[in-house]
Design a protein that fits this description.
The structure is a homodimer.
Chain A (H helix, E strand, L loop, with lengths): L3 E3 L3 E4 L19 E6 L17 E7 L10 E2 L10 E2 L12 E12 L6 E5 L8 E7 L2 H4 L18 E3 L2 H4 L4 H11 L15 E5 L2 E7 L3 E7 L1
Parallel strand pairs in A: 10-13
Antiparallel strand pairs in A: 2-3, 2-9, 3-8, 4-7, 4-9, 5-6, 7-8, 11-12, 12-13
Chain lengths: ~220, ~220
């Protein structure tokens, strides 16, 4: 079968140090900022000329955590991990070609020693993820609010209350508190886990966050 | 630089026999149907289990007409072919990695001797184009109607009147007339061409379509 070769044009830099805790889709944690840093061969400023006219961008990128493994059916975590659906009926990472697709909000274009970087929000990419393409989001073709979202629809408002004790909050700046809250409220723990006493650990930026999770609420125990 | 290898999981089959006349984005000619035919290694029905729960699908595919050529800036035809913008600020085919992104409507899943095929509408892919990934469209993350569409916004309703003389219509079935009309009304001719006497030729399905084009109207002269 004919093979095609693609190369990263950029990589993402953000606080998502591990897969656990990354929102399951883009846009769900809009408080979280990421930087798109172009690879050396793609730092010519002309490549992004006029990109600031667009508020949102598509990223086509590579899942790197799955080592290329995939299976014909997957068990979406949102369905409790029991029901199997076809891989092409999901956005699962465990798919042929390991390609990811995410829409992000373009916040700023910043000069840096690595050339111009795009500061975006809402990305659901692990730190260091290779990006193969960046395209403008065209609402007149890409926005189809009336589309039928299948089984994913039922879970879109699954937001938990997040409690962070004052003595922990006082050690953090407000941006970090906002980002951590927006990640935890999406309920990162596996759906099949229901032990309210269990302590989960999540790495974000340079923080190690420990928390418990009940049906409606996440309680932070420690952030180091 | 690290290279990644991707392989086609499917290819598209439709009436777009040449680049000229293909709508510039997906969804613009919703009357046009295409078939997604899976490659032999991806014909296991499990791969598309429950996909019918979604009304729309994303296709990530490969531009094959450009021979991998790209340039840092491109001149979008919609801007008259004069203004240069960065390749990442356009959906131009002439881009690094030659990846295309299109949303299509899932019309039907059909059994065939090539396994199950997905019948979709609104595709803007040339016949035979390799498809690398198929993902469900998730309106709660993918639909951002309020996104700012930059310079593409101004041109979204650029629809022409299409006149097909009765003696030509009488030789065609209504489906073909609808498809041909929906392609021509999008004004396939280059924006910088303004010669109203010029006759353009377009291949679609097994038809050779000849037409003239004024500022507001397309007049079909011959369909063979």
């Amino acid at each position: 079968m004919k093979e095609f070769t693609i190369i990263p044009v950029a990589k993402i830099k953000n606080g998502y140090k591990e897969k656990f805790g990354i929102p399951r889709q883009s846009g769900l944690a809009p408080q979280v900022k990421s930087e798109i840093i172009f690879e050396k061969d793609f730092r010519d400023e002309n490549l992004i000329r006029d990109i600031e006219q667009y508020s949102h961008l598509w990223l086509i990128w590579g899942f790197t955590e799955n080592n290329g493994e995939w299976s014909p059916t997957v068990r979406p975590p949102k369905l409790g991990g029991n029901k199997r659906v076809g891989v092409f009926a999901t956005r699962s990472p465990y798919r042929p070609n390991s390609l990811g697709l995410s829409v992000v909000k373009l916040e700023e274009i910043r000069k840096s020693e690595d050339g111009r970087i795009l500061v975006v929000s809402g990305a659901d990419l692990l730190n260091g993820t290779p990006i193969f393409d960046i395209k403008p989001y065209l609402p007149y073709v890409d926005a189809i609010p009336e589309a039928n979202g299948g089984f994913s629809e039922e879970f879109k408002n699954d937001i938990l209350k997040v409690s962070i004790p004052d003595e922990i909050k006082n050690k953090l700046n407000s941006e970090d508190i906002n980002e951590i809250t927006s990640i935890l409220e999406l309920n990162p723990k596996p759906q099949y886990q229901s032990d309210e006493e269990r302590i989960y650990g999540l790495s974000y930026k340079n923080f190690e966050i420990k928390f418990r999770c009940s049906e409606k609420e996440i309680t932070v125990i420690e952030i180091e």
